[in-house]
Amino acid sequence: MVTALAFFSCALAGYLIGSVSFAILISKGIYKKDVRSLGSGNAGMTNMARNFGKKAAVLTLFGDAAKGAAAVMLGRLLFAALSPELDILYGAYVAGITVILGHMFPLYFGFKGGKGIATSAGVILSLSPVVGIILISIFLLFFKVSGMVSLGSVIGIGMYPVVTLVWSLCYSHRLPVYSTLCAVVISGLIVLMHRENIGRIRRGTEYKFKKEETEETPAEPGVKNQ
Questions:
Q1: Res 217: pLDDT
Q2: Which tens digits make up the pLDDT trace of 152-200?
Q3: What is d(CA 153, CA 144) in angstroms, rounded to the nearest whole number?
Q4: Model-level pTM?
Q5: Exposure string for 9-32, b = 16+ CB within 10 A, e = fewer
C-alpha cells in the first residue's frame, strides 16, 4: 500500500509539473499571442523560435528542461520518503515519464501542449548526465547535417533505450531492465508525437532551420510552417 502511494505520488507530481507550459506562458505573457495558434501549432521551442525569435526559444528550452529535471528530483525525494526500502530510481523514472505526459497534454491548457523534446532532455540529464550528453551529441550531429530539429530529435531519442541499456550494464549496475523499459516508454512517446514530422521527412517536405530564421524578428502571424 505504501509503495503504491509512492508511485502514485511521483506520477501525480510529475504530471502537474509537466502541465506548466512555458511556451504558452511566454507567448501569451510577453507576446500576447498563443503560440499554438501560430506556425506548426506546437507549444515548444522550435515553434517559439520560428514565431518569436531566439530569446523566446531559449527561455522555453530552459523552462521545459528545468521542469523535467525538477520532476525527477521530486520523484527521488518522494520515493525516498514514502518507500525507502526501494531504489529511488523507481520514483525518478515514474515522475520523468509523467512530466513528459504533462507537457504533451497539459491539464492547465486544454490538454494541448508540445512534443516533449526539451522536457525529456531535462529528465534524461537528471537521471543520467552521461546518457543525456551522448544523446544530445547525437541530436546535434544530425541537426547540423540536416537542418531539421525533428530528425535530430527522433534519432537521438530513438537511441535512448540502447544507450541506457549499455550504460546500465557496463557502468551503473542499477536497475538495467527497469531503466531500459522506462527509456523505451519515453522514446516511444516522443517518436509517436513526431509521427507527422517523420512522414514529412520521408516525403522530403520537413521544415529546415536557416540561420536567418533564428533572429529576433517574429514571423508573420498566421504563416504556417511545415
A1: 42
A2: 999 999 999 999 999 999 987 889 999 999 999 999 999 999 999 999 9
A3: 12
A4: 0.89
A5: bbbebbbbbbbbbbbbbbbeeebe
Nearest to 19 by CA among 90, 91, 134, 113: 113
Q: How far is CA 161 from CA 100, 117, 131, 132, 171, in A?
A: 16, 15, 10, 12, 15
To which residue does cell 508540445 refer?
114
Owner of C-alpha cell 526559444: 57
Residues near 43 by beta carbon (within 8 Å), at least 6 away in sequence: 21, 23, 24, 35, 36, 106, 109, 112, 113, 114
Angle (CA) 159 124 92, round 5°: 125
In a 10 Å sphere around its CB, with 0-12 CB exposed, 13-18 middle and 19+ buried, how is residue 78 labelled?
A: buried
Q: What is the DSSP string of 100-150?
A: HHHHHS-GGGTT-----HHHHHHHHHHH-HHHHHHHHHHHHHHHHHH--HH
Residue with cell 505520488: 9
